[in-house]
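May I ask you for just one protein sequence along with its backbone structure tokens in two labelled lines?

_____
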Amino acid sequence: ICSRDEQKQHEMALDLPPARFPIRYFLGDVRDLERLIEVSRGVDVFVHAAAMKHVPAAEANPMECVRTNILGSYNVVQAAHRNSIAKVVALSTDKAALPANAYGASKLLLERVFLQADETGDCRFSVVRYANVFGSKGSVVPLFLKRRSSGVLPITNPEMTRFSITMADAIDLVNFAIREGWGGEVILPVAP
């Protein structure tokens, strides 16, 4: 596990202690290529889940979004090639289809970076594309639960629909990509 959030790593290590689970915890950031190369040595599978994912924050800070979501993804590709990692899976979003904001555009470019990376070397690069994961950090569910006592839920348009999956389905999709991914594809779940 490599992330820049030591608190989340600490909480995860309490739930999944390294003495009982074969997990190593590293502090690092996808923006730091040398650190990614260092922590990914000897890795067989790399799941790239790092992202700046809040749409308003990406709109207000587009270059930060570029640095994390696009250049960080390129760094993942470079580290994977440098360390000959067999399988690399990136998480994307339905907002990458016909993007209407900086976040969606950055994820579309992440997908392009991964698809191009699969054309060279022995690493297999796949992308899973889904949307709102119920109950994940940053999903609409905690906001709706917080606001339900007011009797009014904030929505942008009464005609809108949301594509949502459970956390278990999201994990299953990543596992599917690891097991079955050919490389060079965007894998979409079938969902209403």
